């Protein structure tokens, strides 16, 4: 029973992170339409790997704000 609860919690956490990353892609002004579509497709086709790569490659909020001020 405990293992089942942990698996469900991990799956729910993964989907929450996936949705938050997808929303983040759409909100970013520094990405073009094509790159937004590419990230979303990557996250849909290879969800775990796509999410992992996006989180690792995404610039920090400070870097995004610095680019916006230019």
Overall description:
The chain has helices at 2-27, 33-45, 47-57, 61-69. With 70 residues, the chain is an all-alpha fold. It has one domain. The radius of gyration is 15 Å and the shape is elongated.
How many H/I helices? Answer: 4
Estimated radius of gyration = 15 Å
Number of domains: 1
The description of the largest β-sheet is: none
Task: Tell me the strand percentage band.
Answer: under 5%
Q: How many strand elements?
A: 0
- Order of SSEs: HHHH
- Structure classification: mainly alpha
Proportion of helical residues:
over 70%
Q: Kindly, what is the distance between the CA atoms of the first and last residues, rounded to a whole number of angstroms?
A: 54 Å
Give the averaged pLDDT, no decimals.
Answer: 91
Short overview:
By secondary structure, the chain is mainly α.
């Amino acid at each position: 029973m405990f293992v089942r609860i942990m698996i469900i919690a991990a799956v729910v956490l993964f989907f929450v992170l996936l949705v938050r990353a997808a929303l983040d892609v759409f909100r970013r002004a520094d990405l073009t339409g094509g790159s937004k579509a590419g990230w979303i497709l990557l996250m849909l086709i290879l969800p775990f790997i796509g999410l992992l790569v996006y989180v690792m490659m995404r610039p920090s909020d400070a870097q995004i704000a610095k680019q916006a001020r230019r």
